[in-house]
What we know:
This protein has 65 residues and is an all-alpha fold.
Amino acid sequence: MALASVIDGKIAAASVIEAVKVAAGGLETETGVKTGLAVVIVGDDPASHAYVNSKSKMAKECGFN
């Protein structure tokens, strides 16, 4: 049986965010295409709006339109 290991979610998330920033920047440099986020919300559920706002903030942090 393998031993369990503790993963620091904040460190893992920061690593993924940095990789996305680099990839998005590389795409723009190579092709001139700026990455973006498009969202379609159906209905007026406040939780859906909160989720989309969270994703929008993260996309902007990663350099998306």
